[in-house]
Amino acid sequence: MAQVLSEMPSYTLIHVPSDFEVPSEQQLRTDLEKGDTKTKIQALKKTIQLILNGEKLPNLLMVIIRFVLPSQDHTLKKLLLIFWEICPKTYSDGKLMQEMILVCDAYRKDLQHPNEFIRGSTLRFLCKLKEPELLEPLMPTIRSCLEHRHSYVRRNAIMAIFTIFKNFDFLIPDAPELIANFLESEQDMSCKRNAFMMLIHADQDRALNYLSSCLEQVHNFGDILQLVIVELIYKVCLANPSERSRFIRCIYNLLNSSSASVRYEAAGTLVTLSTAPTAVKAVMSEVRQSLGEIPMVEDEMRKAAGDEPMPDESVTNTNAPTQQKLVTADGTYATQSAFSAPATGSGSSGGGKGDKKSDRPPLRGYLMDGDFFIAASIATILTKLCLRYTEAVGGRGGQGEAKKCNRFTGETMLVLASMLHLGRSGLPEKKITEDDADRICLCLKVLSEQSPEVAEVFQKDCRSALLGMIEARSEIEVEEKNAKKVAAAAAIQADSPIKFMQLSKGQEMSAAGDIFEMGLSQALGTAKKEGGADFSSSKLSKITQLTGFSDPVYAEAYVNVNQFDIVLDVLIVNQTTDTLQNCTLELATLGDLKLVERPQPVVLGPMDFCSIKANVKVTSTENGIIFGNIVYDCGNASSADRNVVVLNDVHIDIMDYIVPATCTDNEFRSMWAEFEWENKDYLQVLLKNTNMKSLTPQKALLGECGFMAANLYAKSIFGEDALANVSLEKNLQKPDSPVTGHIRIRAKSQGMALSLGDKINTSQKTRAKKPIVTAN
């Protein structure tokens, strides 16, 4: 039974208010039986919330069928669809409940309801059913919904048929033929899109036959249908290259679509399927159109100064009627006459900024918002297009072809330089980052030199590297899934015995160690691994000598780091023959540390010792320093005489608060651009003592290469992020040459970045075996 429950599907999450009071089953039963419509709605909502929270209310099933199911209230019908989705429909042995026969009849009545939205909602609900016994009696009614007058019902009927055919094809084996016939006579674009998408996944040959029959009318279709057509053409041409000539003209026509999404997908598909110079020029033209007028800085400054006319000012006759085609609910066209109203003063003054933003081309809008990662991607794409165009045209020879290549290269470099100028002009909301600027400059250099080696890298090696990265990413995902399965299998079972400290034997307790510290470290995920622990991670490394052996008072401290506080267990030894009165441990902190309470004075006899504990609260991940002294009075001296022993400083290690963590590449780039604190260091040994995790796959770090780059990430127990980018270089021609490079560290606070840099510098000095060459 536990296995069955673990495989149950996860349903829609519904928010439960904080003041939600759990009602009794009897109260819900009374409200559902005798309450009015409002009371039934509230009771049904509470029932749904209880079932989603794991409560079992089997006695309410017949009550809902008898008193709520016959209701014609639309709100109740919507809630009932959610209830039927989440309530158990089978017994423990997997057989269908007898009560569900009555519910199935209610489904059939809702599918024949005169209200189109109830029909459509019921059809959407049927897509979620996993019981073929409930769906089989409804198939004739679902088929009849394909002939309904309202497009909302028809398109949901298509999706219901698609889902049922995908899950239980024996219920409707002729679904592809049925949808193909429906597609021939349908006029609504949303219905045609759903039907065409189903044919792509269910019967691709029928989808191709339909596309071939209407290939000349594709440019008149709606954008939602055009996007699906582009997807089909891409799949077919990729699997069967001989079909490219058949559909390439259709892709060319879609470059003139009024939808930016369709133009973008068509341009990407065109340059993927065709290497002809005309295809490359068409894609280049589309990218330039999406960027707007070049140079962009001058264009934006003219718009800001108001030198160019607004779109509505260029219209000479504002009172001329215009004809606009509208699509009605049943798929027919209606013609409407509209008069353009003159803009009012308030509207022109208040919405000027919004109008300028809406007038910008799509890609220009992203650049003006400061998203220059898109600019770097565009630069790479245009560089590859230019190299492909040069290879296709320049190989023919002749002076005319050379001029064409130079003209295309010059146009590409103008676009790249314009984006770089815009990023540094101060007009966008955010300035271009140095990484994106370096990428654009690299592309400009590649275009200016155009060496065959670099062209080979851009056109072939980059694609191979991308495929390798995708394969490595998929392997990492598989490994993570397997690791989760192993962790789940190793989890403590519900019937495993629980060890109680009070009931354990003395020998077991002495061998267990500090169970409180062990439990806390296991909960935080900071527990040390068994085996392989060096001296720096042992308990002896946590002991700090505070005074010298020749001092009258000897002191040493054991530093115990918990999650948000530090406990100093200080051992104080009186090495004199006098009694020390008012022996006080005075401490102070430097950094984001705070002393919780001051230790109380003690009296130490001759050669006596004691242990004093001091608590220090930690508020952020930075290296902190604890310093102070021991003050005492001698027994044979006057009360005015005081003796002071200065203590050595206690340095709090930042590594006690940092644990390896994982984030996506997009999150890494976003945080890298957000964090302002940066610290550069040079190193040979990577992240051995930094508790960071490499986000770069291991496959990307293998192989013989003179360069290495990796992204590192860690997270403190306070939720602070730490990022690092490692770049190393070694001359492969000289095996004994030193490793040169640097690591750039960024963190949310300056102290955390500096502390990590200090830690790396310290590890370099203690463990370096080869010289590290640093550049000034």
TrEMBL record:
InterPro entries (UniProt xref): ARM-like (IPR011989), ARM-type_fold (IPR016024), Clathrin/coatomer_adapt-like_N (IPR002553), Coatomer_bsu_C (IPR011710), COPB1 (IPR016460), COPB1_appendage_platform_dom (IPR029446)
Residue span(s) of domain Coatomer beta subunit C-terminal: 495-633
GO cellular component: COPI vesicle coat; Golgi membrane
Keyword Phosphoprotein: no
Topology class, membrane: Peripheral membrane protein
The organism's place on the tree of life at top rank: Eukaryota
Subcellular locations according to the entry: Cytoplasmic vesicle, COPI-coated vesicle membrane; Golgi apparatus membrane
Stretches for region Disordered: 303-323, 338-361
A GO biological process held by the record: endoplasmic reticulum to Golgi vesicle-mediated transport
Alphabetized UniProt keyword annotations: Cytoplasm, Cytoplasmic vesicle, ER-Golgi transport, Golgi apparatus, Membrane, Protein transport, Repeat, Transport
Compositional bias (Polar residues): 314-323
Domain Clathrin/coatomer adaptor adaptin-like N-terminal: 24-286
Pfam families: Adaptin_N, Coatamer_beta_C, Coatomer_b_Cpla
A single GO molecular function term of this UniProt record: structural molecule activity
Domain Coatomer beta subunit appendage platform: 641-760
Protein name: Coatomer subunit beta
Record organism: Tigriopus californicus
